[in-house]
Amino acid sequence: MSNVRQVVFPAGRQALYEKNRYSPAIRANGFLFVSGQVGSREDGSPEPGLEAQIRRAFDNLNAILSAAGCSFDHVIDVTLFIVNPEAVLDTLWKVLPDYWGEAPHPALTAVGVTWLYGFDLEIKVVARLPGARP
């Protein structure tokens, strides 16, 4: 098995990732490891408004999943980092069904944090690539 990292870039955002010196996602050994996604516009600035920012984070995530040839249905593990969870969770739970898909849902870990570079939420996932052997 090859341990070579294969980088996945969503359309139109490569310069942002190069500026910040990380890969948006890595394909390795049948899995896709996606870096934490926030509700950032193309220039990296936060989408204004909590619900819009959450939706943009999921849209950014879905762009990476699509670039890798998969969808949220392939996601097996989710980690959410949330600034001020008490203020964010009601809106998050309202938005999730639009992106989460049908049961069985992925494993989930949510962590309250104090700072996310001006964002309210970050979502990090691991997905099994289509056609990968179990």
Write up what this structure looks like:
- With 134 residues, the chain is of the alpha+beta class.
- Helix content is 30%, strand content 28%.
- The protein has helices spanning 14-20, 50-67, 85-95, 97-100; strands at 6-8, 25-28, 31-37, 75-83, 107-113, 121-128.
- Strand 2 and strand 3 (31-37) form a beta hairpin.
- Helix 2 packs across helix 3.
* SSE succession: EHEEHEHHEE
Molecular shape = globular
Structural class: alpha+beta
What fraction strand? 25-35%
How many separate domains make up the residues? 1
CATH superfamily: RutC-like
What is the CA–CA distance across the termini?
A: 14 Å
Task: Give the spatial strand order of the biggest sheet.
Answer: 1-2-3-6-4-5
- The number of helical elements comes to 4
Task: Report low-confidence residues grouped into runs of 5 or more.
Answer: none
Helix content: 25-40%
Overall mean pLDDT stands at: 92
Tally of extended strands?
A: 6
CATH topology: 60s Ribosomal Protein L30, Chain: A
In angstroms, what is the radius of gyration?
Answer: 15 Å
Task: Please outline the major beta sheet.
Answer: 6 strands, mixed
State the CATH architecture. 2-Layer Sandwich
CATH class, named Alpha Beta
What's the arrangement of secondary structure elements?
Layout: E1 6-8, H1 14-20, E2 25-28, E3 31-37, H2 50-67, E4 75-83, H3 85-95, H4 97-100, E5 107-113, E6 121-128
Parallel strand pairs: 4-5
Antiparallel strand pairs: 1-2, 2-3, 3-6, 4-6
Helix pairs in contact: 2-3
Protein name: RidA family protein
Pfam families: Ribonuc_L-PSP (PF01042)
InterPro entries: RutC-like_sf, YjgF/YER057c/UK114, YjgH-like
